[in-house]
Amino acid sequence: MSREKLLEVAERLFAEKGYTGTTIREITREAKCNIASVNYHFGSKKNLYLTVFKERFLPRARLIRETFYKLLKKEKEKTPETVIRAFAKAFFLGPIPREERIISHRLVAREMNQPSEAFNLILKELFEPFFHEIINILSKFFPEKEKLRLAVLSIHAQVLYFNFNRLAVEHFCKRKFDEKFLNEVIEHIVKFSLEGIKGIQKNGMEN
Amino acid sequence: MSREKLLEVAERLFAEKGYTGTTIREITREAKCNIASVNYHFGSKKNLYLTVFKERFLPRARLIRETFYKLLKKEKEKTPETVIRAFAKAFFLGPIPREERIISHRLVAREMNQPSEAFNLILKELFEPFFHEIINILSKFFPEKEKLRLAVLSIHAQVLYFNFNRLAVEHFCKRKFDEKFLNEVIEHIVKFSLEGIKGIQKNGMEN
DNA sequence: GTCTATAGCAGGATAGAC
DNA sequence: GTCTATCCTGCTATAGAC
């Protein structure tokens, strides 16, 4: 069906080139649809953009959350380390192809930089429930919720950065972003963040 | 002079709306210049964009680096903590107005997401020298350079995130991004990252 | 250096045939 | 649901007067 094809192509192009950088002409050309099909199916370019978030971005975000729960269930005991590892891994590994994953992070980064209507969707349907869940789990180990919130944002910052900024990471580390390096990056984020969380909770007591 | 005014307005608009989202018409209107002035002074919109990086972004980046050195010089003894604090603070405080600072981070985030010719400038004239400098200083305390590189990227990820993603941070932490919160965020990044670096170096020995 | 006028083109959107 | 043709607007860029 051309509607699905349009959403697929549009998502990729919006992620790569942004909203204004992408044209209906380009989307329909790559989707091998007629130029009028966007307006027929979605009414406007703007509504196509929003539909991309509702029908492609959010379902994928739900998959990432499910991956987190699955990874966590596999663990016999839930230590801070296994929780953080599951959180970090969910953003990098799982059933979603790598290309789609990068698309998601690009879209998020774009919306953070220049929020549109879609930003509220991301906030309410992804960040809020997911981050609060993580905080609830981790607050058993780290009681200071305010500091825990900042720590979760620090983890998310890293996940986002290592995903959407691969070019600079590769250049700076002089490494190809292959399977091996990806696993090293995940382990880096896990260890770095685990000690980080312990640190801010420890230091917090002194204040 | 209208050339400077054009650069100033163009930088702000490019940061807010991106390259394709910003029009010459809008730039000249806000700069109170004639619509033909962009092509007179810069030859093309694209060259205006590049000039923004050369004449506004990079000088500010140099100021940030200088701030780092000044902050570091003030310290009696250079511990990992004082180095990391100087590094983090340089991105948030100093002689540059907050609005300009956010503009810089937005431009960087845009170029990371969708690199143009300007990305090489950022890489070669900002990231490479600055990050290598930090690594050289920190490698006296933490000898494992590979892990240190990833740690520096983790710090940069946080600095970028808390700067260009203020909307989500405010929403999630239920705090206004005022002076007080800013200082808490800086201290959070410092402590989180300090323990993080210690952690990955410690764990690295076991492998 | 600044301005007006305009070329030349690409953009989103729509009407109406099939 | 798909297509062509077309409208209208807005874009970058330039020529040429001042």
Task: Report on the architecture of this protein.
The structure is a homodimer of 207-residue chains. Chain A is mostly helical and 207 residues long. The first copy, chain A, has a single domain, classed as Tetracycline Repressor, domain 2 (Orthogonal Bundle), CATH 1.10.357. The first copy, chain A, is 80% helix and 0% strand. Chain A contains ten helices and no strands. In chain A, helix 4 packs antiparallel against helix 5, helix 4 runs parallel beside helix 7 and helix 8 packs antiparallel against helix 10. The model of chain A has no long low-confidence stretch (mean pLDDT 96). At the A-B interface, helix 6, helix 7, helix 8, helix 9 and helix 10 of A face helix 6, helix 7, helix 8, helix 9 and helix 10 of B. Chain A binds a DNA duplex (18 and 18 nucleotides) through helix 3.
Topology:
The structure is a homodimer of 207-residue chains.
Chain A: H1 2-17, H2 24-30, H3 37-42, H4 45-74, H5 80-92, H6 98-113, H7 117-138, H8 145-164, H9 166-173, H10 179-206
Chain A binds a DNA duplex (18 and 18 nucleotides) through α3.
